[in-house]
Fold each of these.
Amino acid sequence: AQSVAQPEDQVNVAEGNPLTVKCTYSVSGNPYLFWYVQYPNRGLQFLLKYITGDNLVKGSYGFEAEFNKSQTSFHLKKPSALVSDSALYFCAVRDGGRGSTLGRLYFGRGTQLTVWP
Amino acid sequence: NAGVTQTPKFRVLKTGQSMTLLCAQDMNHEYMYWYRQDPGMGLRLIHYSVGEGTTAKGEVPDGYNVSRLKKQNFLLGLESAAPSQTSVYFCASSYGVEVGREQFFGPGTRLTVL
């Protein structure tokens, strides 16, 4: 069964400092991993994904994520945080199996990122 | 191109009342999903559809029904609302089954059941 863990409910960082939002996963086959961001009173927006290839994935708004197979992790990073990055971040793993469950995403509980000026 | 839209945005129901949430997408996506979001629990899949006329149960289907009569619409129904169904409901869609296909989300419906 697929599952995702986001061990931190909250991450606080000063503007201009690097940020990391952690995610670990458990899958029965190849991992297909996603990060989404949710701003207040909005739906989820896609940030980036890892399917195969380079372990460092670059996405929207200057975010990147590092895939580490041995540690089963997919941490979200940004070199210099902005106040506008404050939001709720979700890591998700994709069900890659055959049959009617194709396309299903399993989400972590979310991490609230606060960037203070 | 509106993407994924949801109506209504907010709703307050009394226990036992019924309602239908409407999701519409204009991207010609085959796959559509209904999630609920509760504090500290992330998003949980209620029902989903892999094409027009098809539906399937997700993680937490009890108390909900769905229909996909048209490709662009996915309806979520609550026949007899309960306080435990107070939540934020998100609809999502995706084009295909390739593993790289991300899901596109609507803005959500905030439902309170008294």
Amino acid sequence: GQNIDQPTEMTATEGAIVQINCTYQTSGFNGLFWYQQHAGEAPTFLSYNVLDGLEEKGRFSSFLSRSKGYSYLLLKELQMKDSASYLCAVQSNTGKLIFGQGTTLQVKP
Amino acid sequence: DTEVTQTPKHLVMGMTNKKSLKCEQHMGHRAMYWYKQKAKKPPELMFVYSYEKLSINESVPSRFSPECPNSSLLNLHLHALQPEDSALYLCASSQDQRGRVGEQYFGPGTRLTVT
């Protein structure tokens, strides 16, 4: 079966660091993606991991452990504009993206 | 140009109407996707076109009919929709359906309301 779990909601303070976890069990794995989606807007690509380890991109980093079926997205130096929904998505062998339910992050001053 | 465009932005239609959603990309991508997204839910895949051929149909009702006239365009024809079909319809494209395809570029979406 296909199952992707991430927390529903998180709250953090401006300037802080937040880690959003994602665990997955999928039939076939061809990479894990993180997307950011602001309310009423389209998802935008943040990161891609296909090998174990950490990928860093500015204030955002993403980590993958394939043996544990686990990933996290790390956001540093939080800004108010980072308040959004963060979607973890696993790509199956057919190329299909399977999305988690999304984590709504609220950044407070 | 890393943009996927969609028209219209908003659409209100009755249950007996026929309408079409349009999507365009000029990135040379060969895979294009239709997703449906309800409020506070993740996008749900509807259709995938790969090299202008329908590759995946996620058991979508026949009142939704996709069409890929060429490699840059993707349409979604709507007919006899139900109020529960009201949602944000997202188009996306990627270089290919396999490989590092998850880097899908999403369009801004069409907010559809069925009355």
Amino acid sequence: SQQGEEDPQALSIQEGENATMNCSYKTSINNLQWYRQNSGRGLVHLILIRSNEREKHSGRLRVTLDTSKKSSSLLITASRAADTASYFCAPSQVHQGGSEKLVFGKGTKLTVNP
Amino acid sequence: DAGITQSPRHKVTETGTPVTLRCHQTENHRYMYWYRQDPGHGLRLIHYSYGVKDTDKGEVSDGYSVSRSKTEDFLLTLESATSSQTSVYFCATWDSYNSPLHFGNGTRLTVT
């Protein structure tokens, strides 16, 4: 199965700074998705980037995708204390027969200090 | 997510007892997933379904079974609960591969 691996495992920054998280994967993908999880809650979808896209923006979020390096990055600009959460990437690959499973890594735990 | 309901939200059970967790969706999504989340392990896929009566195993399926008799319900059964199955269980649904996953709010299961 296709699993994304996030790096770093933990990141601590000051409010107002930018935060960059990376994701690596092993095989070709249809798209790659980023999710956020606040403590104890379900994951919330942030951005989906398709394999033919190189960059995508959503508010203070910027995602890049480099399929030649099999990697993606998530940049959060001008971070806020409310951005404190764990962030996960999920590469998506369609399997034979139409079954599809999204496998998550261990995530990056971001702490934004006021 | 308003379209996904997990029940129960919390459960404490004893070792050796069977337990069934329920995931109900109103989104009419084809795919449904059960994950467990433990400290240091992130989210691990237990089982998933790609249609009514179509299910497959994930990474950590031993000791778990699933059933999906209709589109909206996906049941996860721990046949004989063990302490190692103490975890937070998340259900998720998916419409198609170019759309996002939708997660439920989780079920916290404690096996004593």
Amino acid sequence: EPEVTQTPSHQVTQMGQEVILRCVPISNHLYFYWYRQILGQKVEFLVSFYNNEISEKSEIFDDQFSVERPDGSNFTLKIRSTKLEDSAMYFCASSSRLRNTGELFFGEGSRLTVL
Amino acid sequence: AQSVTQLDSQVPVFEEAPVELRCNYSSSVSVYLFWYVQYPNQGLQLLLKYLSGSTLVKGINGFEAEFNKSQTSFHLRKPSVHISDTAEYFCAAYSGNTPLVFGKGTRLSVIA
């Protein structure tokens, strides 16, 4: 069964460092998303991406964040200068939107710890 | 904008007892509803979904949920829980004009 894969599973970084989280969406999906979950809190939408551009972003997704689809398979989330409050689990998701039902397929997540 | 409320942050229940995890969504003309499960140190796995049709939806691992439009609810139920059901459960809603929105989650703890 096709699945969304994410790397790394866990990354520890120093405050102020750049971090890139990588995702390989399901191959025939066209819509890509990043969500995050701060420990003990709800899963929050960050950004959606379609046709090589951001289609929607939340107020959390400020100038420190960027997304990119550098090739035909990867979808990355970059945090330019990490802050302590960026520590969270980051989930990548994809969908085909053949039927626009909002159903997303999630990866296992990348846990980011900022020290 | 769509919102999802999970009133119970934690639900402890004894093994083999029934359980209900509550979820309410803000009213919308059309809404699609989901329950995701997150086992310890794992990602989000789709448990079940309501898109249309029968209001009683069956999912994996013996879970089911009922869509109640008049009460704007989508409560998750299981008649007999197992230790392995211990996890975080998230209700989510999509109404076509915003991204999928999650509730705060309910931590189900099954006690032997």
